[in-house]
């Protein structure tokens, strides 16, 4: 769940609720953004540790786990069934195919140009640039696993394409196209989660997520800056 | 006026589009879009009626925070599904870009003035969320008391 971008309090609650319903009354759990430590409160079983290395966002997975744990609490499914479904969560929850994500990225980019900059003329070109930016991010995340490099290159690609499109007469305002094309890349979920985690008193996870969001925002910024410099 | 209607439509679409990127459940997409529209309308009305970036973003964030918890209760889904797409139209993208551009061009003075605007906007959205959390806690308390009072009589 943490990998998919849920907030810490929800993870904590869910684990405790599952443990409670499975008959472990004294279960204790300690959740941070990089790992989970949990003990069942039974003397002859040790604590378990799980570590979390990569974080992305997949809110449907969060919703699905939430739903499963609720139906487990309501005794609609037994613990074996519940465990099986959790193990196969990646197969149950389908992600949108790439082309739907691309359209999503395009819509976000195109519409926000109109909202932020009152610029109707650049809708379609921004739509395309946003799609390309998201595709760069998507494939780099799959093939090159270096953190923050994919954000950097995607931002550079967006800025370069925007400037080129204006030079070829397809767009009107390079600045507006860049603003729109960057919007799908902005780390929105980590930022909101950082605020929420810090507010709910989880002073380790909140700032940790905040730093993560800050670094990816900086990577985006440098990407744009470099493209602006060389074009 | 025409532009306003187009903008409303665009805000709704941007909420849905962001939902597609972060893989929202299908049922939540439409509502997330409307949530984004509601938050942005609050922002738009306030910034045009009274002005002031801070208060407009504050009330936008507050509205999104409260409404998404209500929807979450109604649809029995986590509230984070609705508030993240809701925030998309409020993000200070333009100012952040201007700040970066000024840094890259070496005009640090305007860069810092844009940067402080970004911090101010982001801070007021975050503050709106904090107050939304408070409102939700108070609402829960009131409902709780109300149910208890009913059981007594």
Structure description:
Chain B: Its main location: membrane. Chain B: It is found in: Cell membrane. The complex is a heterodimer of chains A (231) and B (153). Chain A has 231 residues and is mostly helical. Chain A folds into two domains: 85 residues, no CATH class; 133 residues, no CATH class. Helix content of chain A is 65%, strand content 6%. A three-stranded antiparallel β-sheet of chain A has the order 1-2-3, with helices on one face. In chain A, strand 1 and strand 2 form a beta hairpin. In chain A, helix 7 runs antiparallel to helix 8. The model of chain A has no long low-confidence stretch (mean pLDDT 74). Chain B is mostly helical. Helix content of chain B is 87%, strand content 0%. Chain B has one domain.
* Most extensive contact: A-B, 57 and 45 residues
Distance between the termini of chain A: 41 Å
Helix and strand sequence of chain A: HEEEHHHHHHHHH
Shape of chain B: globular
Kindly provide the radius of gyration of chain B, computed on alpha-carbon positions and rounded to a whole number of angstroms.
18 Å
Q: For the CA atoms, what is the radius of gyration of chain A?
A: 21 Å
Unreliable sequence segments of chain A: none
What spatial order of strands do you see in the largest sheet of chain A? 1-2-3
The beta-strand count of chain A equals 3
SSE topology string of chain B: HHHHHH
Query: Which stretches of chain B of 5+ consecutive residues score pLDDT under 50?
Result: none
Give the assembly state of these chains: heterodimer
Shape, per Cα inertia axes of chain A: elongated
Supply the helix-strand structural class of chain B. mainly alpha
Main sheet of chain A, how many strands, which sense, barrel? 3 strands, antiparallel
């Amino acid at each position: 769940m943490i990998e998919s971008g849920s907030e810490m309090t929800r993870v904590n609650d869910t684990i405790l609720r599952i443990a409670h319903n499975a008959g472990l009354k004294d279960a204790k759990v300690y959740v941070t953004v990089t790992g989970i430590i949990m003990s069942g409160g039974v003397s002859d079983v040790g604590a378990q540790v799980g570590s979390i290395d990569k974080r992305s966002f997949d809110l449907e997975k969060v919703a699905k786990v939430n739903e499963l744990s609720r139906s487990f609490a309501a005794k609609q499914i037994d613990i074996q069934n519940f465990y099986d479904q959790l193990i196969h969560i990646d197969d149950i929850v389908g992600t949108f195919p790439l082309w739907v994500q691309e359209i999503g990225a395009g819509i976000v980019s195109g519409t926000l140009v109109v909202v932020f900059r009152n610029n109707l003329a650049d809708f379609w070109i921004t739509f395309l640039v946003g799609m390309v930016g998201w595709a760069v991010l998507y494939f780099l995340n799959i093939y090159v696993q270096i953190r923050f490099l994919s954000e950097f290159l995607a931002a550079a690609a967006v800025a370069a394409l925007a400037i080129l499109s204006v030079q070829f007469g397809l767009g009107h305002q390079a600045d507006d196209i860049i603003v729109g094309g960057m919007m799908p890349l902005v780390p929105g979920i980590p930022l909101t989660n950082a605020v929420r985690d810090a507010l709910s008193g989880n002073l380790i996870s909140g700032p940790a997520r905040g730093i993560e969001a800050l670094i990816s925002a900086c990577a985006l910024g440098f990407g744009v800056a470099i493209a602006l410099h060389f074009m | 006026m025409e532009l306003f209607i187009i903008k409303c439509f665009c805000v709704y679409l941007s909420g849905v589009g962001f939902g597609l990127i972060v893989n929202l459940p299908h049922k939540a997409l439409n509502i997330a879009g409307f949530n984004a529209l509601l938050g942005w309308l609050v922002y738009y009305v306030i910034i045009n009626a009274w002005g002031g970036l801070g208060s407009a973003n504050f009330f936008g964030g507050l509205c999104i925070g409260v409404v998404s918890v209500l929807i979450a209760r109604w649809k029995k889904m986590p509230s984070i599904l609705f508030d993240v797409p809701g925030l998309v139209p409020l993000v200070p993208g333009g100012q952040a870009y201007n700040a970066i551009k000024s840094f890259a061009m070496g005009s640090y003075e305007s860069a810092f003035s844009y940067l402080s605007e970004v911090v101010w906007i982001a801070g007021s959205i975050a503050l709106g969320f904090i107050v939304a959390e408070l409102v939700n806690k108070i609402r829960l308390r009131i409902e709780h008391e109300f149910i208890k009072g009913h059981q007594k009589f």
